[in-house]
Structure formats: structure tokens, C-alpha cells
Amino acid sequence: MALGSLLTELSPDGEGRRPLIELVGRWAAEKPDAPAFTFVDYSVDPSGERTTLSWAETDRRAKATAAALREIAEPGERAALLLPQRHEYMMTMMGAMYARVIAVPLFSPDLPGHAERLVGAYTDSEPAVIVTTRSAQPHVEKFLADHDVTPPREILYADEIDLSSAEGWRPEPIDPDEVAYLQYTSGSTRRPAGVRITHANVAANARQLWAGWAPRHPHPELVSWLPLFHDMGLIAAMALPMVKGDHVIYTDPVAFLMNPMRWLELISGREWVYTAGPNFAYEYAATQAEPDKVAELDLSGLVTCLNGAEPIRPSTLETFYAAFEKAGLRRTALSPGYGLAEATVFVSAAADAVPPKVITVERDRLEAGEVVAAPADAERTVTLVACGRPVGQYVAIVDPDTCVERPDGRVGEIWVHGPNVAPGYWRDEERTRETFGARLRDPGDLPEGPWLRTGDYGVVHEGELYVTGRIKDLIIVDGRNHYPQDIELTVQEAHPAIRPDHVAAFAVEGEGTERLVVVAERNRRVPLRRLDLDAVAAAVRSAIAVEHEMALHDFVLVEPGAVSRTTSGKVARSATRRRYLEGALQTTAGRLADQG
Fold this sequence. Notes:
This protein is α/β, with parallel strands linked by helices and 596 residues long. The chain has a domain at 475-594: ANL, C-terminal domain (GMP Synthetase, Chain A, domain 3, 2-Layer Sandwich), CATH 3.30.300. Helices cover 31% and strands 24% of the residues. It has 18 helices and 27 strands. The strands form 7 sheets. A 9-stranded mixed sheet has the order 3-2-11-10-12-13-14-15-18, with helices on both faces. Strands 1-19-20-21-22 form a 5-stranded antiparallel sheet. The chain has a 4-stranded parallel sheet with strand order 5-4-6-7, with helices on both faces. The longest helix has 16 residues, at 55-70. The N and C termini lie far apart (59 Å). The relative contact order is 0.09. Residues 8-14 have low confidence and may be disordered.
């Protein structure tokens, strides 16, 4: 069953495939003093020091950065962004687009826990230039010294660029099919996958997101803390406002992690606000929603808060709404969505000013590949969250083996076709053919191809998309399919000693069938001296046996921070599995043994 269409209405003003960077100059001319980007810095002031750039100043800084880049790099060469999330980051991305230098949005090397990913992406992209700041210079120098990587030809300091050079910059024609930047996906660290995002991809996806997410007000404001090196953060905070010349208020991810209420405080009191975040962020914010803090908020102007980038839990939607309902949050603002870097980011969202749709289905039938509704109080059920419909692109549910479209209510691989789908991976033609070159058998009214194979399982039910799991993460035991996120939810609810949202379920090879392994972090709230490891393991084994009718091969309780996560906060099952097989996990049993 397919959803969507390629709508010409996405560009009613005739902009078409015009690169978004060219619109910056338009807004600078039409509304030079209007606010464009406001960065809120909590590192210098706990209440947040705000610095706002107008559209005229944004264009000036972007052109100055373009001039500086073109002095040391040619069009098509790569510039790696190894700098903190500040205005300099945003201006470097825009400057690279003006200069036709391929940006590689990464992060300052002092970001903990992601050194392997940084090395992989840096090495794969072979940058001619590193763009950083003077404050991050020691971290960059240490990164280059400590790792076997090729030094860049030049290092450019974004905070020392001569802004007067903007006057001499002459914009060049940009082919929409030129690569604007490489978006490195956060799943695998050993095999970095740099998605080639073209100027046309960025323009199409920003307009798709605007049309499907923020169409009910001509000039909404956007609030974000998401990392700019991540696809959702980059499109939401940089590309989306360029479509209509809107205003973005943003901060850095560390500011959110230290105090998630800052996110809601930035939204409070504003009219027609849009924001986005992964599921864990809504859960985290809800846990910090103390009544006195909520009483100070006004969230009545929050129109849409997109929830995407990881599996969406119905309980999170309810928890977040319950936590902030008294602050004026509307249930209709909750907007589950689906996307991936290979489609630039945005594919679909439930943003129709109605509450999120959640359905209860029979677990056994879902494992067999069919969605069958069940009463909410029935046993052996699974709840699924609707991710809405696509805008300006097609989504089809396809049998991955036969390449035949599946009917409504049947589970298959999610395939995507549209102008936002990237042309492929950077310097990996084999992987590009496998992922981006799919073709439908008996396509009917749909395009035959090429289609993007997302690697996600999903289903179309009553006109909306539901995501059921990752194909590669699927656990097959005794011929039955099991989605790891369902098992992980069962495990974290089995015993209070298990830290919520820090559980990884995966399969290892066995004799004749796969075997289930679960790695779970210890909850810090349960003191070590009161911990009964046997009782925790018994509770987990019992819960899995009852809920999923399967045996657990191995359960490992590990110390906080031991379960691998991606840069977007998702549990990295494959990385955790690798560390489990290597015996590299810091187990709680080991810590107890060390303490004697």
C-alpha cells in the first residue's frame, strides 16, 4: 500500500529546485532587520545569553565565510565542521553552500563517547579543510595527533573570519544536483555512511517539512536544541527557516541535557511555535516537570512538536502531555513522525491538528506480518503509533524479497521515492545500488524506481504509516519474528533496577536458531548494596517468557553508560552486540566483585 504523491503545490511561488541558500539573499533584501537566528548560550549565563542575527547579518556572515573557504578550497572539496554549536556552525554551513564546497557537519572532538564515529566520518570524507574555533583548537589538535588521520590542508577559524570580505563575494550559479553536504548516519561506526545530500534534496525536504508540518501560519517560530550535525537538527533549525525567512531560537544539546526545562522555557509565551525532538527527549523533559516549574510556563502557542528519529512510545506521548497539560499544551500539538538521513530527513508526520493516533494490535499476528486490531485490555498485544502521511513524496510498503507492493494492513519494508531522496552514499557505489536502486515489480500507478530501501519494517493502516521495527534488528527465534523494541520495553518494566530506555535486545547465533541476548543498564536509583542480581535476572527471564513466549539465552546487567548509543540518542544495538561478543562491557557483577 502506497501513500503520498509528488505535489507541485510544494512550491507555489515557482521556486522549484532552487537552492535554499539563494533565498538567504532574498530575505536579506526584503526584510533585512527581521530576526533569523537567535542562539541562547547557557555556558556564560545560567539564564541564557541571547545573540540574534538578522537576515541581513546572516547573509553577510555566510558570504564572508564563503569567501574565506574559497581562498583555501575548490568547489567539490570537503570542509569538516569540528566546532561547537554556535552561530559560527550555522554560518559555516551556509557559507559552504554559497562557496559550493561540500560541508561535512560533524562536531568538536571533545564531545564524549563519539571518537570512533568522528574518526570514521573524517577519514571517509577526506576533508581539505577543517573549520573550527579558537576555543576548540586544542581539541582539534589533540584529535589530529591521537588518531591515524590525514591532516587537512588548512584549518579555518570561523570566529576570526573577516566579515568585510562579504562585500567582494560574487554568488555563483549552483547546480541543484551538486552535493551540498555529507550527512553521516549514526548507526555504524566501523562502516561510516556519508549520505550525499544535494542542494535539490535540501530544498525539496525543507519545503516538504514546511508543507506537512508548519502550514497553518505564514511565519511560525522554531525552537531547537538538536545537534546541527544530526539530520533532524540541521533541517529543522537551518533549512526550514530559509524557506519563508522565519525565526529560529536554538541552543546546544548539552544545555538541554543539563536542564531539559530550558527547552520548554524557550517555547513558553510564544505564538505559533514549532519544535522537534526524539522520543527520549520528551520522556526526559516530562521527568523534570516539577509542578512549580510547569506553573511558570505558557505552552499554548506550541502548535507542533515533532517526535521522531527513534521508536515512538505511546506511553511517552501520554506522559509528556500529562506533565505539561496545565501549562497549556494541547494534545493536538503532539506529532509523531518518521524520517531518515537517506531521505534528507523528513518522510511523514501526523500533523493534522488532531491527537496522535494509537492502535492496539495482536502481537502474534503482527509477528506473522499482519496488523489485526485488538481490544486495548487484551493480552499479548502491541501498541503502534501512527506517523501520518508523507508530503511531496511516495511511501510504499513492499515485500523485500519479491519487490512487490504489499496491501493495506500487511507488514513490509518501507520504500521511499521523491525529490528529497539522496542520490547515494559517498564513494560507495555497491552500497548505493543496494539502498537507493530498488525497483518495484508490477508498480501499477507508482513509479517503477528508483526507490530508497529504508531497512525499516512498517505497515499502512487506514491511510497512515506505522513503523514496526528495523529489518536488521529483527530477532528470529524458532521461526518467529520478534521486534527488539518490544522486548526492551518488557525488560525495563520487569524490575526497578533496570534503567528505562537503556536496554539493548539482540540475537546471537545458536544451533539451528538465533538466541536472544539482553543487555540492560543498572538504574542509579537502586543502590548497589541492595542489588540482588539473581532476582533481577529472574524477573527479566520470567517477563520475556510470559510476554513473548521465548527463552532468554543471556541477560547482562551493566553499569550506567555501558549500552552504546548513537549521536541522536538511540540505542545502538549492533555496537552493543559487538562489545558483548568482545567481552568489553562493564558489568555490574564485575563492579561488585571488584568491591569485594
